[in-house]
Specification:
By secondary structure, the chain is mainly alpha-helical. Helix content is 66%, strand content 5%. It is built from 5 helices and 2 strands, in the order ααααββα. A hairpin with an 8-residue loop joins strand 1 and strand 2.
Amino acid sequence: MPADLLSSTFSALADPTRRAILARLAKGDSSVTELAQPFKMTLPGISKHLKVLERAGLIVRGRDAQWRPCHLKAAPLKDAAAWIADYRRFWEESLDRLGEYLDDLQKEHKTQT
């Protein structure tokens, strides 16, 4: 198991089934049976995915009589988005510098012709 929360979040997001489950939970709470419907997977298979999401802090499972709703907890996603945003700034700045360099090359080319 990853040692830090960011690693746990990215590890949980690495699987397309888990990302699809989170997308469904973003629309509202669902039971395990409801979450399993679009997948060709057994309920125990879906439960394993839910355990990974739960350990990563991305969902919580409640209990309401016979219904055990799953609920999205988006705080770890916010932390992951903030981490990615730092790299987005890096790439945007790099592309801006590249754009300036290309503009300078075009100006230089025009003055030579």
